[in-house]
Amino acid sequence: MAPDKETLRAMYWTMLLARRTDERAWILHRQGKIAFHISGIGQEAAQVGAAYALEVGKDWLVPYYRDLALMFAFGYTPLDFMLGLMGKAGEPTSGARQMPSHWSLRSANVVSHSSPVATQAPHASGIGLGIKLRGEDAVVLTSIGEGSTSQGEWYEAVNWAAVHKLPVIFMIENNIYAISVHEHLQMAVESAARKADGLGLPGVSVDGLDALAVYEEMGKAVARARAGEGPTVIEVRVNRMTPHSSDDDDRSYRPREEVEQMKLDDPLPAFEAVLKEKKILTEKDVTALDEKARAEVEVAVETAEAAPYPPVEDASYPVYVEDVRHG
Amino acid sequence: MAEITLIEGVRQAMDEELAHDERVFIVGEDVGPRGGVFRATLGLFDKYGAERVIDSPLAELSIVGVGIGAALYGMRPICEIQFADFIYPAFNQIVSEAAKMCYRSNGEWTVPLVIRAPYGGGIGGGLYHSQSVEAFFAHVPGLKVVIPSTPYDAKGLLKSAVRDPNPVLFFEPKKGYRLIKGEVPEGEEILVPLGQAKVTREGHDLSIFAYGMMHHYALQAAEALAGEGIEAEVVDIRTLLPLDKKTVLESVRKTGKVLIVHEDNLTGGYGAELAAVIADQGFTDLDAPVKRLAGPDVPAMPYSHPLQDWFMPDPVKIADAARELAAY
């Protein structure tokens, strides 16, 4: 089922807001105002296409670090992100304990994840097991880079979900590179979706630059999961338009022409064109939304810059549940 | 009052917690119809069904990783690792994930999870069915590490571990599974609090700190020493993390001499932490150097019977070390 007009507008807004927020983070890093940024630029269409096929508040998300747009769709805000980048008090995912882009949002069923890759995948299967044991019809989306699907943790997680027909969708955001290592050195299969074949569940590959194509495939997987028919692996083929992180320089391992081509294939203007063609957005709307996004990001930056750092004593807790301080 | 084995205490604890809380389920290799390779889950599959006693794929990291996910969802999994020696594939999940979840999410996400594993040697298990792995995990803030040494404690500590809101590693001395018997009252809720060591034999000449099978050997050694006029106090550590420093230091104050016993190898073992705590906080109470009797620093326990005996601390070795210390 195609998304309605309101959903399409929301999808565009989420993509746009994520892009402007992400771009601003790079500037903050260049200005020496933050220590680290890891980017999702080029992956927003896939993330938004996936997110809007789910029911936020009911379904579960076990994300990975490039999922800024996905997080925005689940209720995370530019201010939340800026507080995280700057390590300021009030940062909602970890109280500024974690590095930026290590998401968590309990109120929206977004589970905290770490930096060693693929560790989150078994958690998604465990949540799926819980859903099945309780007889509920929520689904779990877990995302991961293609390099991380080389980890045993990912195979074990997918295998579990397949054996027990758990309501889990394993989305692989294939952006071709794991830091500097090309996908050809990660896997012998043409598509990471083929990894599903040996584990007994469907695997599909979809153009991740096309938000609507992702939305459609995700919708099928969600329907399968809710119907108790089990998990799906979905590879979304995306472009990482930036270096791996603010500490990386991608000139040593990929040609500039490739990056230039990625800019021509940018999913944000592509989605904009689709919505203009469908008469859902006008040029005037686009300009207004862009101004709104930039303004919201600026307010977030200013608010975060003005925010205090957490008190040092915050570093000492909560090691155990007994130490948790509420409020 | 019924006399039961240590493993029966473990089994009863799980049976009662499955009945007590519908969020509790068991997951592990061969835990289903087979009842576990040691029979810790005997009868539970028939009683509670395939959804609450789940035979996992043969893959330890996902036994724990899937357990963590279920715990995040609100379940109370009991994960069985068939032998502690096989826990290493799950190390990343335990140390990077379960231990850090509460801290890294500022308490938003917690992992109420128990990981049970038989540990220790003396059963002809060779290098990979004999290991003591507690020191790896006792190093990690966010985890609790519990080792029972009696049927009563096995039952009472495991029930408390299942109800604890944190990830708890529960290591069971497998040599004692059927060897160690003890009285456990029937029809009574037994909950032994985590985090409390226990003085199991009073004495004034020296303190022997031990846990698991070594605690029994320490009691046997103390019995032998009593015949020679040496009165050893024996303390069962029971919870390694968090350590009950108060009980430990009180015993040091009383006796002034310390022998720490564990079958894990010496270097970087749990005894090193105990010794450091005692040296730091009990220094003025000491009348002799803190001594450790531990497994030797070889990679693991060999299979052949005499070689295994060479590795394992036993009542004779403990009594020898205690005698030497008492004479200091």
Main attributes of the structure:
heterodimer; A: 327 residues; alpha/beta; Rossmann fold; five-stranded parallel β-sheet; 42% helix; globular; B: 328 residues; 2 domains; seven-stranded mixed β-sheet; five-stranded mixed β-sheet; 14 strands; 38% helix; 20% strand
Based on helices, strands and strand pairing, what is the structural class of chain B?
Answer: alpha/beta
CATH superfamily of the largest domain in chain B: Thiamin diphosphate (ThDP)-binding fold, Pyr/PP domains
Rg result of chain A: 19 Å
CATH class of the largest domain in chain B: Alpha Beta
Helix-strand pattern of chain A: HHEHHHEHEEEEHEHHH
In what range is the share of β-strand residues of chain A? 5-15%
The total beta strand count of chain A reads 7
Structural class of chain A: alpha/beta
What share of residues of chain A is helical? 40-55%
Largest sheet of chain B: 7 strands, mixed
Q: Biggest interface: chains and residue counts?
A: A-B, 44 and 42 residues
Overall shape of chain A: globular
What Rg of chain B, in angstroms, do the CA atoms define? 19 Å
Number of domains of chain B: 2
Oligomeric nature of the chains: heterodimer
- Quick one: CATH class of chain A? Alpha Beta
In round numbers, the mean pLDDT of chain B is 98
Kindly describe this structure.
The complex is a heterodimer of chains A (327) and B (328). In chain A, the strands form two sheets. A five-stranded parallel beta sheet of chain A has the order 1-2-3-7-6, sandwiched between helices. A two-stranded antiparallel sheet of chain A has the order 4-5. In chain A, helix 1 (5-30) packs across helix 2, helix 4 packs parallel to helix 10 and helix 5 runs parallel beside helix 6. Chain A contains ten helices and seven strands. Chain A has helices spanning 5-30, 44-51, 68-73, 78-86, 120-134, 152-163, 211-226, 256-264, 267-277, 283-306; strands at 60-62, 140-145, 168-174, 177-178, 181-182, 203-207, 232-237. Chain A has one domain: Thiamin diphosphate (ThDP)-binding fold, Pyr/PP domains (Rossmann fold), CATH 3.40.50. Chain A is α/β, with parallel strands linked by helices. The model of chain A has no long low-confidence stretch (mean pLDDT 97). In chain A, strand 4 (177-178) and strand 5 (181-182) form a beta hairpin. Chain A is globular. Chain B is an alpha/beta fold and 328 residues long. Chain B has two domains: 2-184, Rossmann fold, CATH 3.40.50.970; 198-326, Rossmann fold (3-Layer(aba) Sandwich), CATH 3.40.50.920. Chain B is built from 13 helices and 14 strands. Chain B has helices spanning 6-20, 44-48, 60-73, 91-98, 101-104, 134-138, 151-163, 176-179, 213-226, 245-255, 270-281, 305-311, 315-326; strands at 2-5, 24-28, 53-55, 76-80, 114-119, 144-146, 168-173, 181-184, 198-201, 206-210, 232-236, 239-241, 258-265, 291-295. In chain B, the strands form three sheets. Chain B has a seven-stranded mixed beta sheet, with helices on both faces. Chain B has a five-stranded mixed beta sheet with strand order 9-11-10-13-14, with helices on both faces. A two-stranded antiparallel sheet of chain B has the order 1-8. The radius of gyration of chain B is 19 Å and the shape is globular. The relative contact order of chain B is 0.13. The mean pLDDT of chain B is 98. The chains are: A alpha/beta (327), B alpha/beta (328). Chain A binds chain B through residues 60, 62, 93-95, 97-98, 102, 104, 106, 111-112, 114, 116, 119, 121-131, 133, 152-153, 156-157, 159-160, 163, 317-326, and chain B through 25, 51, 56-57, 59, 61-62, 64-75, 77, 89, 92-93, 96-97, 100-110, 112, 141-142, 144, 165-166.
